[in-house]
Amino acid sequence: MLRSALSLLLLRVFAMAADRPARLRAVFSDLDGTLVHFPSWFEEHGAKIVSRDAEAKRCVVESATGERRECRLLPSSTMGDGVVSERTVELVRQLRAEGVLFAVVTAARKSTLLARLPLLPACDVAVGETGSRILLEDGAVDVEWAARFEAVCGPLEREMDVAHRPEPLWRLFRRLQSIRGLKCDARSYYGCFRADTGDDPSVDAALRACVERELPAGVSWAMNLGKYDFYPALSGKGNAVSYLQAKHGVAAAESACLFDDDNDLPMAERCGAHLLPGLTSASVAHAAEAHPDWYVAPSAGQGVFAVEECLERLLARVRAEKAGEGAQPVGA
């Protein structure tokens, strides 16, 4: 009788534990549209830059309600200067001080990522080229990760003209260059490349038809900011997040994802908490509607103000958990 009662009690304890959200131990964050914001986007939602010093790489951004933030100006090779607020930098610092792993996961090319890193919030890991390039805290490339798909894209540190790269990814690049009106971009890309249709429906149709017929085994693609990113199927943002979770001993349920666009959805699937400072694409907006537990910032679309709301929510959760209040849900 006593043994049965004890067994029943243990089952109830395990069931209660399973129902509780896991404690937060890692945050995986996109860059463009998430940590870094652009005037052409946030001006549509009432925020604006009110002062700018390009030489000092500083600016002040004002919200639709008149609130202001000191910001850093970041270089971007394709979209102009981006902004990241000092408040964002401080919130990430506080999360890391609480013992939370913070990883930046972006599609940015090597040169853009390296130029931005000194101005971004300090992080534990930086991931570029749609998941292909993982930079450790000391700036070194994670060679164990890169070796998994080297046969598809070649060595990440190799300097070779794209016209002579023999791997499947680059053979596809050269094939797509033959599509009239399609702009293929491999500058400072080593583990992925980008294709831009210029929003031309006929070019888009030609690209999709070619991809359907000729996409090489081991190559995948995703939409990012209205453009196509092609990369090794074993890399990608989702696989990179899974690799980092395993490497650092972090479970999916212990992870939060900050994101806004289509190519972020695979990494969001690897995380237990989801926070969106904006809804850049229709598919992400639909996904958020289908998941009421996802947190969409009240200032969604207002750039730095929206991501600060997301980071403040995460920091409050971590501190509540440390204070002994148990694991906290992130969603509204």
From TrEMBL:
Keyword Hydrolase set for record: no
Taxonomy of the source species: Eukaryota, Haptista, Haptophyta, Prymnesiophyceae, Isochrysidales
Coiled coil: none
SUPFAM superfamilies assigned to the protein according to its UniProt record, in alphabetical order: HAD-like
Keywords carried by this UniProt record: Signal
UniProt KW Transit peptide keyword: no
UniProt protein name: Sucrose phosphatase-like domain-containing protein
Signal sequence residues: 1-17
